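Hi everyone, sorry if this is the wrong subforum. Our group has a chain we'd like a structural model of before ordering constructs, and none of us has done structure prediction before. Sequence below.
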Amino acid sequence: MRSSRRRFLLAVAPGAALAAAARAAEEEAEVGPAEDLMREHGVLRRVLFLYDEAAHRLDGSAALPLDALAGAAGIVKRVIEDYHEKLEENFVFPRMEKARQLATLTATLRQQHAAGRKVTADILRLSKKPLADADRRSLADRLRTFNRMYRPHAAREDTVLFPAFHNLVGNNAWGELGEQFEAEESRSLGDQGFEHAVSQVAKLEEQFGIADLAQFTPR
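Answer:
Right subforum, don't worry. Here is the predicted structure as tokens:
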């Protein structure tokens, strides 16, 4: 899957950025399993921003592309819950717990995975039907509930869990674990993995009208 990520970088890099993308692609082989998980968190953070925008529109009368919102929740379910979280639950948490490290944290993270799946199911259900006023309020609440939980959840994994996991596993086993992660990605997602998720999120941002990053620069 890393070779496909190199092709993806080269395909999307315009003009002068092409050389930088090529250098980054050469370094891709050094990216380990924790870095892969962090990249998936990056995709998730873009979805969380879509959720923020959707909740804001639901509070008022602004148009909301429900199909795009359902697509965003679909990315969460397919890439984050059905794949990314399963990697953590099958490969990361058990090793930490066996070593008696961060057991309280991993227990909380497991509970939040389960809670998040219930919220995502609500979001998918509500975003696929015409919304009455009560439904708009419920959907906005579910979106904010998910974001409030998952922002600190992902940040704690990135800054505490993943570094500790790397130290525990050690460099010798790191490469082998990375290969296991790649195999799981191929088995679980096929050609619908990281690159597809990035492309899909970008299209959803266009549907929401928030694809231009420059619009968020303070004046």
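For your construct planning: Confidence is low (pLDDT under 50) at residues 24-29. The chain has two domains: 1-30, 33-212.
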